[in-house]
Write a structure and sequence with these properties.
Keywords: Ion channel, Ion transport, Membrane, Sodium, Sodium channel, Sodium transport, Transmembrane, Transmembrane helix, Transport. With about 625 residues, the protein is of the alpha+beta class. The protein has helices at about 1-20, 40-45, 50-55, 60-90, 125-135, 140-155, 160-165, 180-185, 190-195, 200-205, 240, 270-275, 380-385, 405-420, 440-460, 485-490, 530-545, 550-570, 590-600, 610-615; strands at about 95-105, 110-115, 205-210, 210-215, 220-225, 230-235, 315-320, 335-340, 355, 360-375, 385-390, 420, 435, 465-470, 470-480, 510-515, 520-530.
Amino acid sequence: MTENIEEDNHRERSRGDGESGGCCSWKFCWWNPPQEALVSEFFNESSLHGLKYIGQPKRHITERIFWFLAFVIGVVAASILIYAMVLRYENTPVVVSFQSEEQLIETIPFPAVTFCNINQFSRKKVKELERVASLPTHEDYEMAKRNLSLVGSFCQSQKSFAQNSDFAYNRGDPKILDYSNYDKIQKNMMDFLVDNTVPCDEMMRLCMFEGSTLSECSTMFEPVVTEFGKCCTFNMLPLPLLLKNPSNEGKKNASILNNPALGTRLTWDDEEIALWSMWNYDKGFILPPPNYHDPQPGDIYLPIRQHGPGKAYGFSVLLDPMTEDYYCPMSDGQGILFTLHTAVELPNVKEFPSVIDSNKEVYVKIFPELTFADDDIRDLKSEKRQCYFGKEKKLKLFAPYTRENCMDDCVADYIAQECRCAFFYMPRDEGVKVCNTDVESEDGECVQEIRGAMRALKNKLCGHCLALCEDIEYRFETTTVTLQNATQLWHDMGPIHKDQLPEWADHKVSIVHIFFGTPAVVAKLRKRLYGITDLIANTGGILGLCLGFSVLSAAEVVYFVLVRALWKYCNRSRRYGCCRRSRKQRPASASASIMLQQQIEAAPIFQFPASFNQASSQ
């Protein structure tokens, strides 16, 4: 029996030696890695998918190669997916979605509304200037010559389509022109336009807001000088709060009214400026002034808000284009241009106008678009979130930051550097002169050249002008109908007017109704595409999908690399006393196991007494 046992043991050792040595000596068959190795233990015990099939004994080499390739493909796929996700997180960390709650229009500021007459100068006034300028002995002779020169310069710089095509050549061309001392008289362009163009109270004849008729439109409209000329605006931040004066920046009690771009004719009421100053637009346009939700009798809050949807709560105005008194219209048509914009921006009527035709009734239905921002995007760089918060970006010429104000600021600064001057309607430092509007002058040629270049370079030069993170835009649609006969409308007067026929009763007037067309809007929301929690969850999902990886899988790697490896080292170490055993305490060898088995087999078998067996059977 001993010989048989030794033969079996020898055969087992021979088979183990052959398998541990790799494949069979004459063909590609089996390979068993040493199971006591740390790598084999990790492969067999790891929770990662596929590794146990690589380390299990008696697996064919082709099976091991298959699972090895499958695991590598899983690692590569997970790496590609995680890299794409991280790249998206870095490049576009902000996404725009929609809020879950609606925003009532009562909380949304009414837009600023700006009207500009296509005709800037009254023919009667220009003819009077020509008459006085032809009389050298007249006391106003010099002033008439100066104003007539400004009229001619302004009309020539604002050519219509027909005039640019060399038609209507003499329209708006005064008979007497004097361009001497032009730099001096250009400084008065702002005051000249305010004094000599069509007054706001003559263009806006009747006004109404939320069903209440206002006695004078001048109480609601303020003149503002734009590239198009003088216009009249309603519900806009006063220019002293809108514009900066770089010369006075940093000086104590420096009034913005000292800005030379404002001229001397524009005035603002201190009470109105105080009311506008209560509006903290830097923290969001819809944030109302203090005590707005608990008003007291007589309280006025700016900007104006519409307290209900529809025409009955909106703004209505009667416009008189005075087509019979046209001198040098800025367009080839007749009527009035208008635009809607936020209260903290200057109107850009020339580039983005809408037209109100004569003798029409126009309904302008507004649909505001709000954009809010989560606080968690504030720690991102502006280049990453592609927007600025209210006071994050400072402008040189404008107090509030908006994209349009930034573009105007950028263009004005570029023209000041290239042409050493500024447009008459733009804010400027005291040391910067006004550009000559004469197209044949040096300034005029430089400005025309810069304007042509800016069309191609504007986005490049002003690429830093990003949108506001919390912004508001006003989309609108218009519906137009023809007015009834003027005799039926304005000649049929009630007891208030009695027989006092208004002077504009026979003019080609128009009526405009501007109102919010919806009771509430769903605002957009800028927020992080991935937060830290989302990034970890998505990474874990990809690793779990491709490899079956989890936090405990990482703990397994740490365990086998550090803890398990340390204990194996301690058990095998003879140089240090860390877990070392003496030779007598080592486990028995294979021969000792065989001797123990022989002794067990040779031991006598214990038998119970016969009487015990009989008793148990009964």
